[in-house]
Each structure stands twice: as structure tokens, then as C-alpha cells.
Amino acid sequence: MEPTTMPAKPEVxxxxxxxxxxxxxQLRDDIPTIAWPGHxxxxxxxxxxGESPDQAVRRELVEEIGYTAxxxxxxxxxxxxxxxxxxxHGPLVVPVESLILTEGLDLGLWSVTDIRRGQRYSPxxxxxxxxxxxxxxxxxxxxxxxxxxxxx
Length: 152
Known about the structure:
The chain is an alpha+beta fold. It has one domain (11-151): Nucleoside Triphosphate Pyrophosphohydrolase. It is built from 3 helices and 9 strands, in the order ββββαβββαββα. The strands form 2 sheets. Strands 1, 2, 3, 4, 5, 6 and 7 form a 7-stranded mixed beta sheet that branches. The mean pLDDT is 93.
């Protein structure tokens, strides 16, 4: 019997973008075949063949919101059962109103209170929508990481 190799898990590169103590999130489309449809999550997406996570996250930000990030640093590489996530963080240095949303239903800055509550109103959807569970966990972990860095 020949050994079998497991197919590689899909990889995504996503970004935690912040202005002060607020965090930019995307309300994902209501398409049942995508991950976390109708939930708030990070901007980013799948790596193209031969593309590094660093390249992918920058490309995705330009494609999805027309934003060229001046600085992005790797926060975490998280491997789940079905996907590998490369999670970056960096400042959002332009007004939210200047971003051009080309993917998703809405975008908005979330406060720490919103993140802990786990949902936020979307003017474009006309209702409150939840944040995707892994996105909330990553944000809470990032907030804790920042708090620890500020203390030390």
C-alpha cells in the first residue's frame, strides 16, 4: 500500500486594521458557500499560487478596500482543521470614508465594547449582525497582547 499524502489546507492572509482603539471589519456577503456568510470579519483572503502571506494580505486590502497599508506585521499563524490563517496587524491611516468597498456588504470601525458584545449594527444591511467567532477570538487575543505590551 502506498502512503497517502493529505492535501494542503487552504491558506488565507487577513488583517487586523486599527485606528486608535477601533478596529476595521467587513460585513461578509450573504453567500452560503463562503466562510462566515453575513458575519463581520477581517479583510483579506486566500493566497494565490506562489504568493506569500505577506503579498496576499497586501493584495487583498488593495482589491477589497483600495487600501495600501504602510505597515503590516504578522500577529499570529493559526492552523485550524480546515484552514491556515496568517493574521497581520497594522494601522489604518486614512479616513474610513475614503475606503472603497468592493467586496462585502458593509465595513465599519468596531469599538472594544462592540467586539466583546459580538455584534454590531450595519446601516447597509439594516440590522445587527454578529462577528464571526474566530474573528472575535483573534481580536480579543490581539487586545490582550496589546495590553500586555503596554504594561511591560
